[in-house]
Design a protein that fits this description.
Layout lengths: L6 H19 L4 H12 L5 H8 L3 H14 L2 E6 L2 E9 L1 H22 L4 H23 L3 H7 L17 H7 L1 H37 L4 H54 L1
Antiparallel strand pairs: 1-2
Helix pairs in contact: 1-5, 2-4, 2-10, 3-4, 9-10
């Protein structure tokens, strides 16, 4: 049972809101903060390298770097080996954002703990330090106790260690099951569509034979029944195909968003 009710996470989110609000008042947006973080830890990179690092569109990165240059957060220098390329460097103003963020968070947490008595604050600090130490120890070990205790939580993705977010084939490999359903149901659906004209021709011929007296109504009934079953199979395959196409697309979309959010959170944490 989570006795914290995720309140630690919620408090951290409120602190993040204050940081972002303060930064916006200084004219720096969320996406620009991520870019500054990346540039602080990769000085001298190009716009193309920033776009790859942040998994962002090159045009968007070009707009953000132009805005940040105008605000005094970065400078450009010609690449020594390629005059057509420009290297980006953070300014002192960009470097100062780290202390600004830490200062805002410290002020917010100081305000929150001001409602506690000295004894409560000391006990809270001791408990919080225990939680922090335990979380860092667990994280560095790869969360072995959590995985063992959680049991029913999300299983590690197969081939997680070999997953490459910059390779399309990686996404197809981890989503092989939906793709298998899409392929199989698609084959059945297309074959069923080809069978429809055959059944229509057979039904017309059977009707003509019945009228001429060479066939019975029972034969027509069997053809009608087979036609209905094939039609139901085709429609079921069509439904399965559409369902797994959407599932495949949603899984890929969710995975890509997770990668971008993880990169963003990592960069913000470094600030």
């Amino acid at each position: 049972m989570d006795i914290t009710e995720r309140k630690i996470t919620k408090i951290a989110r409120e602190a993040e809101k204050l940081v972002l609000l303060t930064m916006r008042e200084e004219g720096v947006g969320t996406a620009e903060i991520d870019l500054i973080h990346a540039l602080r830890h990769h000085p001298g990179c190009t716009q193309a390298q920033l776009a790859e690092l942040l998994h962002a569109d090159k045009a968007a990165i070009a707009r953000r770097t132009k805005n940040l240059e105008g605000k005094g957060y970065l400078t450009r220098e010609d690449a020594p080996n390629d005059r057509r390329s420009q290297l980006l460097f953070p300014t002192e103003k960009a470097e100062s954002l780290k202390s600004s963020k830490a200062g805002i968070e410290a002020a917010f947490y100081e305000y929150l703990t001001s409602v506690l008595t000295e004894e409560e604050a000391a006990a809270f600090a001791t408990s919080l330090n225990k939680l922090y130490t335990a979380s860092k120890t667990e994280s560095r070990a790869g969360f072995p106790h959590f995985r063992k205790a959680a049991g029913g939580g999300r299983r590690p993705m197969k081939n997680e260690k070999t997953f490459r977010p910059d390779r399309i084939f990686s996404y197809f490999r981890v989503e092989w099951l939906p793709l298998a359903f899409v392929t199989l149901s698609g084959l059945i659906y297309n074959i069923g569509l080809l069978a429809t004209p055959w059944f229509e021709g057979r039904l017309a011929q059977c009707l003509a034979d019945i009228l001429s007296g060479s066939e019975t109504a029972a034969q027509m009934a069997l053809l009608v029944l087979a036609y209905i079953l094939v039609t139901l199979l085709v429609q079921a395959s069509r439904f399965i195909k559409r369902f797994y196409v959407r599932r495949f697309a949603n899984n890929i979309n969710r995975r890509m968003k997770g990668i971008v959010n993880k990169s963003s959170c990592t960069l913000r944490g470094l600030l």
